[in-house]
Amino acid sequence: xxxxxxxxxxxxxxxxxxxxxxxxxxxxxxxxxxxxxxxxxxxxxxxxxxxxxxxxxxxxxxxxxxxxxxxxxxxx
Length: 76
Known about the structure:
- This protein is an all-alpha fold.
- The protein has 4 helices and no strands.
């Protein structure tokens, strides 16, 4: 679903958007810029999917176990 939003911007900014992005493309341009900052990914389902990948989990465990000896407990 799309919603209409009215914003106020400086005339110079509008003219730059119109000139660089083009008429009829400004909304999509602004949405593409803003989306990563306001629409957060569904991390929970991503973590569940990763945990269900047994091969990936085995590889991650092997990597952790291989590097655990590299930690100097005395330094802590």
